């Protein structure tokens, strides 16, 4: 497949649930449409209860859409035969506690159709990849949350799938665990895999995703390249100076409409990036020294919060 | 071939799970205790002591095995959904019917395994009490095995779409009616009202007939068991099982896992 090929296609998906017997149906997805391109890391972002997991369950064939269609690798998600090409890590995965890490991976390898001649080697390879080789023969009931998450990642990759779906892969992990999972995801992209990631941790999305869709109250509010969410026009810069005379600082503040904050002997100026060069030149001329220059970008969180507010208002 | 490997993997995992169920050992223990208790109960009689021991033994095997099939069986699918282990399984190239058949096969093998243990206890008690053992006993026990297979299929069918409580109630109901369906049919035939007769006929056709698997009387009293009756029971059990699993798979395929 060529670069840019649509690997996942979701078209106008609607899902209604009946909360209980005799109760009125509740619409949890309201015509969701998006696509995931080959080789990218796609972040599916939204607050709790927005419909992220419901969408993912539709893609996994665990629930059926009320209306609309969803396809992976050109195959309807209701089919099961093509699933040897996809991997799935559910949120807070639970595995049979009486099995060892090696046994559970062997079980999933059998279900995924991994050839018996290379099953054992593949299990060892995955245990190594997720740093579980020392605990390979320990029962899963003795595993920590982070270790279970790594078992989850390993089972999702046991059959070397083309597309990997991850539901909140970093949730509940410590910083080391999160970095390990991030590294695995980046390694998957490097190996040409396509990754779909459900998450509400925006920092992770900013760090690793190529494209993002924001879902609020069952509807997609924004989608596109990660750069599109962080427009250049909104970029500001913080310049920290030392030895800046108070009268020069006051003149800069007035002329360039910037925020000025005293930091002991130093002064921090938050200004529009396009004026940064001029301000630094003036400061240097007056005998001040530049301590640091930090660009401030409009974060994904700002876009996310505005999408949530839009969703709530609609 | 891939289908078979997947079903086999699911079945073996089901056995591994079922043999960790404490209820299985409780019922198995009670069953073996009941088989042994036949010796004590038989001392209350002066005649047909051997028959009493074996009658009680066979009844204990049937009753406690059915208990295991129902109470261990109904929780297996529900447990997979409740603990969400089914999510990762169905995300693999495993169809829902393969999942259901794998669970059914695993539970049937577990139930047969405990039937073998109870049968050994039965044989041991009979041998120690000096009661005769013959091929009739073996056939009667094999027929109990077929009955249990149908019962597991019923438990699997109901647990594919209801709660464990309802599945247990329905399965117990089917098992009891299955042992009474011949009597209900005979009662209906004696009625003068045509509609009652035809309703009784349809109920008999639709509900399982578990008495087809009951050859305890013949085995215990050394009466001949006709081969065509055994063949009929075999065909009946396979047919009934296929119908239930097909219907169960169709319903299970439409189920949403929220």
Describe this structure in words.
- The complex is a heterodimer of chains A (314) and B (258).
- By secondary structure, chain A is an alpha/beta fold.
- Chain A has 2 domains: 6-229, 3-Layer(aba) Sandwich (Rossmann fold), CATH 3.40.50; 236-296, Alpha-Beta Plaits, CATH 3.30.70.
- Chain A is built from 10 helices and 14 strands.
- In chain A, helix 5 (175-190) links the parallel strand 7 (163-167) and strand 8.
- In chain A, helix 2 (101-111) packs across helix 3.
- Chain A starts with 5 loop residues before the first strand and ends with a helix.
- Chain B has 258 residues and is mainly alpha-helical.
- Chain B has one domain.
- In chain B, 81% of the residues lie in helices and 0% in strands.
- Chain B has 10 helices and no strands.
- Chain B has helices spanning 2-18, 22-42, 49-82, 85-90, 96-129, 135-159, 164-190, 194-206, 216-220, 227-253.
- Chain B is globular.
- The chains are: A alpha/beta (314), B mainly alpha (258).
- Chains A and B meet through strand 6, helix 2 and helix 4 of A and helix 1 and helix 4 of B.
């Amino acid at each position: 497949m060529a670069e840019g090929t649509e690997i996942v296609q979701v078209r106008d998906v609607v899902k209604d649930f009946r909360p209980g017997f005799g109760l009125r149906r509740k619409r949890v997805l309201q015509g969701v449409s998006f696509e995931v391109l080959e080789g990218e890391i796609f972040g599916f972002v939204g607050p709790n209860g927005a419909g992220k997991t419901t969408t993912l369950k539709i893609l996994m064939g665990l629930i059926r859409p009320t209306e609309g269609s969803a396809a992976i690798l050109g195959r309807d998600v209701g089919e099961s035969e093509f699933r040897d090409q996809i991997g799935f890590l559910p949120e807070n995965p639970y595995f049979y506690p009486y099995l060892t890490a090696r046994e559970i991976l062997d079980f999933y390898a059998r279900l995924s159709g991994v050839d018996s001649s290379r099953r054992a080697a593949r299990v060892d390879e995955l245990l190594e990849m997720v740093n579980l080789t020392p605990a390979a023969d320990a029962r899963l009931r003795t595993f920590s949350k982070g270790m279970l998450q790594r078992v989850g990642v390993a089972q999702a990759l046991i059959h070397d799938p083309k597309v990997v779906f991850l539901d909140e892969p970093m949730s509940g992990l410590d910083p080391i665990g999160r970095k390990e999972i991030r590294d695995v995801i980046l390694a998957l992209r490097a190996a040409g895999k396509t990754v779909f990631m459900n998450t509400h941790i925006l920092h992770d999305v900013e760090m690793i995703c190529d494209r993002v869709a924001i879902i609020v109250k069952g509807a997609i509010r924004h989608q596109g390249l990660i750069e599109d969410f962080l427009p250049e026009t909104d970029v500001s810069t913080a310049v920290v100076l030392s030895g800046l005379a108070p009268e020069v600082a006051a003149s800069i503040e007035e002329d360039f409409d910037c925020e000025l904050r005293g930091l002991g002997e130093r002064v921090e100026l938050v200004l529009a990036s396009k004026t940064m060069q001029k301000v630094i030149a003036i400061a240097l001329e007056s005998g001040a020294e530049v301590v640091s220059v930090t660009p401030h970008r409009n974060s994904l969180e700002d876009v996310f919060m505005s999408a949530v507010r839009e969703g709530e208002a609609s | 071939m891939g289908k078979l490997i997947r079903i086999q993997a699911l079945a073996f995992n089901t056995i591994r799970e079922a043999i960790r169920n404490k209820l299985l050992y409780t019922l198995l223990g009670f069953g073996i205790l009941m088989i042994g208790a036949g010796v004590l109960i038989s001392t209350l009689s002066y005649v047909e002591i051997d028959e009493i021991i074996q009658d009680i033994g066979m009844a204990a095997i049937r009753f406690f095995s059915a208990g295991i099939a129902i109470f261990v069986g109904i929780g297996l699918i529900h447990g997979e959904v409740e603990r969400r282990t089914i999510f990762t399984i169905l995300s693999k190239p495993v169809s829902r019917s393969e999942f259901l058949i794998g669970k059914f096969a695993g539970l049937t093998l577990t139930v047969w395994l405990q039937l073998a243990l109870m049968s050994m206890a039965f044989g041991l008690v009979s041998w120690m009490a000096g009661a005769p053992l013959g091929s009739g006993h073996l056939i009667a026990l094999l027929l109990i095995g077929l009955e249990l297979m149908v019962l597991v299929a019923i438990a699997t069918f109901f647990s594919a779409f209801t709660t464990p409580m309802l599945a247990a109630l329905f399965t117990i109901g089917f098992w009891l009616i299955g042992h009474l369906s011949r009597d209900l049919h005979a009662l209906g035939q004696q009625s003068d009202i045509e509609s009652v007769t035809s309703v009784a006929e349809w109920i008999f056709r639709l509900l399982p007939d578990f008495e087809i698997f009951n050859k305890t009387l013949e085995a215990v009293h050394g009466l001949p068991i006709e081969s065509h009756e055994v063949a009929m029971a075999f065909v009946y059990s396979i047919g009934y099982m296929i119908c239930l699993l097909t219907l169960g798979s169709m319903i299970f395929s439409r189920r949403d896992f929220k």
